[in-house]
Write a structure and sequence with these properties.
Layout: H1 2-5, H2 27-50, H3 60-69, E1 80-82, E2 92-93, E3 99-105, E4 108-115, E5 121-122, H4 124-129, E6 136-138
Antiparallel strand pairs: 1-6, 2-5, 3-4, 3-6
Length: 139
Amino acid sequence: LALMYSAPRAATIIVASEECKLWRLDRDAFRHLAAKSSAAQHEQYESWLADVELLKYLNSYELAKLSEVLHRREYRCGEVIIKQGEVGDMFCLLEEGSCSAFISGAQGEVEVQTYSRKGEYFGEIALLTEQPRKATVKA
């Protein structure tokens, strides 16, 4: 953390064995690698976003800005991603794996949609209409 934020070290490291061999990386090299990795990640996201049907109208600058604010999150099988009835504060793009949408009603919870292809998306309707979520989506 001290390398990333130009902050004082938060701890002292002491050799606990008779001998210690390690690799060392200075601040400039570390920052260069971190920046390069981040740029490559954004480039990958931009390429991927350009293929998402909902986003095809965006230009390269807008795709670049969008790639900068994406937050990747992993979900476990069965975990709720969005919940029916809640206020929509995000929409999701599938990167890998699959998830399913369920609507609760008189017959209980019924599966209405499965998402399994990279770039498929859900949750956009609640954002666009400012209406509560119409379905629950689970990983």
